[in-house]
Amino acid sequence: MMARLARIVKKRIVSGDGGWAYAFIAVALVVFALFTAYPVIHAFMISFQEYKPLGSTYVGFDNYVHSFEDELFWKSIKNTIVYTALTVPVNLLLSFGVAILILPLKKWLQTSFKAVYYLPAVASGVALSVVWLWIFDPLQSGILNQAAAFFGIGNQNWLGTSATSMFSLVLMAWLSSHGTSIIIYLAALIGIDNSYYEAAELDGASFFQKLSYIVIPFMKPTTLFLLVTGIIGSFQVFQNAYLMTGGGPDNATTMVGLLIFNNAFKYFEFGEASAQALILTVIIAIISFIQFKFLGNDVEY
Amino acid sequence: MTNKIRVFASVLALTVSLSALSACSSGNNGGNGPGASASNDPGAAVDAKDTITALLPPVSANYQSNFDQMETDFNKLYPNLTLQIEPASWEDITQKLDTQVNAGSPPDIAFIGSDGISKYVEQGMLMDITAEATSDIIGDFDPVPLDYMKNGSGLYGFPAYMSIHALGGNKQFLEEAGIDWKSVQQNGWTYGEFREAIKMGVVSSGGATSRYGFVFATSGVTAKDYLNILIKNAGMPAAFDKDLKYAYTSQNYLGVLKAVRELIDDGSMPKELSSVDAGKRWNMFLTGQTMITGKGLATFENSAKTNNKKIEAADGAVEGSIPVDYVVLPVPTFAGADPVASAAVDGYVTFRGKKEPTEEHKANVAKAAYFLASGKIAATTNTELLVEQITDSGRAAAESLTVERDPDNAAASQRLQSIASPARPDIPAELGAEAIKLEDEVIIPKFQALLADEITPEEMFEALKKAAVEAFGEDGVVTE
Amino acid sequence: MALFKRHTNRKSILYIRNGIIIIVLLAFALATLFPIYFMIISSFGDPIEAGAASYTLWPDKFTLASYKFFFDYSEHSYRWLINSFVVAACVTVSNVLFASLAGYAFSKIRFRGRSVLFAVLLCAMMIPYQVTQVPLYILIVNIFQIENTYAALIAPSLVTVYNIFLAKQFISSIPTEIIESAKVEGCSQWKIYAKIILPLSKTVMAVMAILTFMESWNTFFWPFLVTNTMEMQTIQVGLKNFRFANTTYFAPMMAGATISAVPMFILFFSLQKYFLEGVTVGAVKG
């Protein structure tokens, strides 16, 4: 009798919560519908058109067919995948490592280091690109060339040749963009309740055992978040190539984000740009789906 | 009870979000969108109130600070009209304009390069002001720059100036290398002479070059400036010849590509040329790391002078710079072709919105564009930029303004102005757009690779020929 | 007790370990800090029109002239800072509130369509903004006609999917039993959110506030698109006005960049304490 009552009560709570849930997400949904979903649907419609501001014409799947046949599109996808594979995992490892190392320090040191690593994110992109152009200066005066000369390597035309331009962009990503992930990792690390470590220490666990049995499982949701958003960001990246190399030389650094941008604005082929953006979205969605499959099961304690 | 709270919560949430929206919109200062200005009542009187919007970059150093004055002056001239100027930086103006054009609500006037006209014509978003441009107005402009604002039979705005892309030399270094720069200014030079001359300019010891003969900014998309300036002097002043055949498949083009490699392989230009940008090469020029630089604009004479003064005063000169006398030099000619000065015409281009503009609005926009492109505004801006005036009214207004210019350079500039490559309004917008796409997708990437020594001139030429035949057909391209 | 051993009995080991850690962190920090260092020292140079950036590791000269130049350059310099602040503050507050609400709903409440809705949100995030920019511009400028207003600057980023996702991931690691037991005790979901979830997510909310504020503060392109007078521009748009055709007012630009970074420092240090102290679940339970 009591059990049945409890079940009924529980059922009511669960079903009753649905209303609350909708209330909680109401604002988010309204904002999303207006400012994200509407433009996306608009873009979807444009992808079947030859877009002209004064009146578009319906062209069916032409834009998709054309994109699939375009060599440059595939080359840019390949470049983007190479760039993503080289930057995202390395950045995650670096930020995780730094976050772990900051943890045992005194509070003022923690604060200082957090600030230090976060600073580059604060600086304006203009200032950063000026500095990076100096670092990659092709003549002897360039910082990287001076470093190379120190190791007996000859002058390199960093951004100017296909052989080194992608590497240069990757190097730039390794050294400049992890303030955000360090902060997010630290927040997650601090959220681990001390009682877990205490229990583990009673069992005589070593540092690495604690790391692999407590910290890493606990970091799963955070890692998933950083991985998914990192890959999305990396697939859409176009600023660095746009500012540093313009996609060159010989399209060696043309990322798909830059290609879409060029199609949309340089050539006014808005339909094709939309089609390529949607193809790109499907690719990212598949990759994200796989990540959710492997990392998505929420850890519960 | 819980139900009520739930309803209340969602209502509250929505109200908060809506009030956030509406509270913020009280900041609206009523600026009517560019689209709104085009929707005038067709039956209104001629002097009905109208607003003309203009999107303008910092054309010269003091240009943007004069915006308020321009608006006031225009309103004084036409009391029923309001000119509303929007500032934008050079880097971003195209992107903003393009977004507005794609959204169907561009400003009435935008300051852009004339090479962008064909792209907007194809979108159907430019406003033909042939009918509004009276013979008085047309007569005020020099014909060559005015032609740059035409496409097919339409006139899509008024030119502000014609800037010549030349080269710039260091007088002292030129004389040391035994180059008679005065004769070059007057008579030009051939590629052979140029090649020998810049070889003489190189200073190196032990394999390390401390001064190059010639450095041009070719990083990223600026590579195309370098190539274009050269091919204009190789008998190809435009992408299409008189019969509208694609010109860049001619053997002369291959000749220019070979020359580009030769200059680098000679050691007269740095082998890292492919990533030298505009700032870098100007720095190299001021610090004595190169004898000749490109592209050279008329204002550079001023920039060099300013830096010289700072060196004298030991205050804030460019690090490591030396006093430099800037010499205007023409681009060498190839294969006996006539010299043609590469000209860039920028101006006030007139746009239309989604709605068909009324006759009055068209006339008002033309008035505003002419107001900006002539008279006092043109005179002060062009004087500041050290470029020639291209309107009679501008010349008259500029008489009172003193220009401090080297007489030799001024004469050389005028000579170049007289051989400026003419506009080609006869090239249909569609062909023009195709040529631009070819340039972006084949020429620039391959040329970057050529500069980086990754492909040979022949490979680049073959790739271009193949793409050109695909785009224009066997009969659509030049073959000799 | 923590992840690292305390070594309470052997101080020397503790010092050596921390010393090594600090050296490693410092080395890495040098590499990442360099651009900032460069930005700040260049801002103390003369406000000259540098024909080309002249690079120095050490400033030859120390002057605040560039800062003065920045504020004198346009009468709107202060206005730009205020605009940026108003926009970033509105966006931050609304994101922290609504994203945490939505994040809680998506992670801890079961409701019809939860996973589908969330998947839709995520997918939308994957679409490159280059193609949604024009439709969004049409919506704001042509349909709503709120061009050149704070509303136009703020509305599109009131709640971002990124923040909802971030909140969801963090809240998902809060033990479900706490919520269950609160429910059994008769707490409504709103109470659970306000009394349990909010205090437990202080850390992530501080992180979210900082990230959102910075993102909004640094945004250039959207404010540039929807403003058309100097008075409505934000600091990032204003900064770009320093760039000229072939030359750049280098030092004042760096001064502007430094000025625009200052509010972020302040925000960072004032929110610092929220993510230094871990919030313990036990403390809330009691």
Features:
heterotrimer, A: about 300 residues, mainly alpha, MetI-like fold, two-stranded antiparallel ribbon, 14 helices, globular, C: about 290 residues, 2 domains, flat, disordered C terminus
What does this structure look like?
The complex is a heterotrimer of chains A (301), B (480) and C (286). With 301 residues, chain A is mainly α. Chain A has one domain: MetI-like (MetI-like fold), CATH 1.10.3720.10. Chain A has helices at residues 2-46, 62-69, 71-102, 107-122, 125-135, 143-150, 162-176, 179-190, 194-202, 207-218, 220-236, 239-244, 256-266, 270-295; strands at residues 49-50, 57-58. Chain A has a two-stranded antiparallel ribbon with strand order 1-2. In chain A, a hairpin with a 6-residue loop joins strand 1 (49-50) and strand 2 (57-58). Chain A is globular, with a radius of gyration of 25 Å. Chain B has 480 residues and is of the alpha/beta class. Chain B has 20 helices and eleven strands. Chain B has helices at residues 2-25, 34-37, 67-77, 90-102, 117-123, 135-140, 143-147, 171-176, 181-187, 191-201, 223-231, 251-265, 278-286, 300-312, 359-373, 375-385, 392-398, 407-418, 429-451, 457-472; strands at 50-56, 81-87, 109-113, 150-151, 154-155, 157-170, 203-205, 208-216, 290-296, 326-329, 342-350. In chain B, the strands form two sheets. In chain B, strands 1, 2, 3, 6, 7, 8, 9, 10 and 11 form a nine-stranded mixed sheet that branches. A two-stranded antiparallel sheet of chain B has the order 4-5. In chain B, helix 5 crosses helix 19 (429-451) and helix 12 packs antiparallel against helix 20 (457-472). Chain B is globular, with a radius of gyration of 26 Å. The termini of chain B are far apart. Helices cover 68% and strands 1% of the residues of chain C. In chain C, strands 1-2 form a two-stranded antiparallel ribbon. Chain C is flat, with a radius of gyration of 24 Å. Chain C: Keywords: Cell membrane, Membrane, Transmembrane, Transmembrane helix, Transport. Chain C: It holds the Pfam family BPD_transp_1. Chain C: It is a multi-pass membrane protein.
